[in-house]
Amino acid sequence: MTTDSPIGEAGRPWGERERDQWRSRQSRRRFYDKDIVTRIDALGDRFERTVYGQVRYAGDAYTLYALRSRVMRPGLPAVLVTGGVHGYETSGVLGALAFLDQAAGAYAGRVNLLVAPCVSPWAYERIHRWNHDAVDPNRNFRPGGPVEATALMDLTQSFANDYLLHIDLHETTDTDRTEFGPALSARDGKVFVEEETPDGFYLVADSEDRQLDFQKAIIAEVEKVTHIAPPDAQGEIIGSPVIAHGIIEYPVAQLGLCPSITNARFKTTTEVYPDSSRTTPDICIRAQVAAVRAALDFALAHSGGKAG
Known about the structure:
Elements: H1 16-24, H2 32-42, E1 47-57, E2 60-69, E3 78-83, H3 90-102, E4 112-116, H4 121-126, H5 147-159, E5 165-171, H6 174-188, E6 202-206, H7 212-222, E7 236-237, E8 240-241, E9 247-250, H8 252-255, E10 266-272, H9 281-301
Parallel strand pairs: 3-4, 3-5, 5-10, 6-9
Antiparallel strand pairs: 1-2, 2-4, 6-10, 7-8
C-alpha cells in the first residue's frame, strides 16, 4: 500500500468506495507461480501435493496448495505447519518450504505431516497483510471468514481429527508500524497508536494453554540462529506483556487466529524480525526452520501417545 495520501475520512470506517480506492493502489510486485508454485512442484517427488482451494479476485486466480506426507500411517500424530497467512511475511513462506526441503525427511515415519506454505497468495504478490477485500485472514479463521481462511480450515479438518502440533510462521516488520498499522486504523475509523517494533525473534503462545516449556524449547533453539526480542521499557512486546524470554500470548480462538483451527496439543506462532541490522533473509529462513524442528522435537518427546 502506498501512504502518500490517506484513504477515507478520519474517524469513519471504510466502505466499498474506500476499498476500491485502496485496491487501485495495489500492484503485483512478485509472482506466486514463479516464486512459490515452482518450489512446491519441486518437492513433489518427496511429498504429495494437494490442491485445497481456489482464490479468485477480479481478474486474478490462485490455486491453493499444500504438501503432505506421501505415506499416511494410522496411529502417527498429525502435524500442521502454515506460512504466508500474511502474504508479505516472506520468511514464513520460504521457511515452510525450506523445512520441507531440508529437514522434514528426519520426521518421515514419525508424523503425518501437512504443510500449507502460502495461505494468502494475492497478498504474497502484493507484499501485503490483507487480501483483496482489505481483510486480514489472521483475524478471521472462523465460519464465514475469507476463502484463504475457510479453505485451510476445511483442509485441516479433512486431514485429521486430532493434531499434536500446529506451528504458524510469521514476521513482524517495520511496515507493521509505518504502513499496515496506520492502514488498519484508517480502515476501521480509529486513531492509530504506534508501538515499538521489537528487534528480534519472539513467539506468541495461546493464553488459554500457554505450554511454556514447549515455547521455551523453541526459543532456546532459535537463539542459536538469531537474537531474541527483548521487552520494551514497559516489559512488553507489541503491547503484550512478556510472559517468558521472547514469549507473549494471545487468546487465539477469541481473535480468530490461525492456530485456533485445530485441537493441537502444542501450538505457537513464530515472529521473525527481518528488518533488523543483525539479520539477513537467510538467517530469517533458518530461524523459521529451527523453530519448526524444535517444536516437532519437543512435541514428539512429550506426545504421550497422541495419534493423528
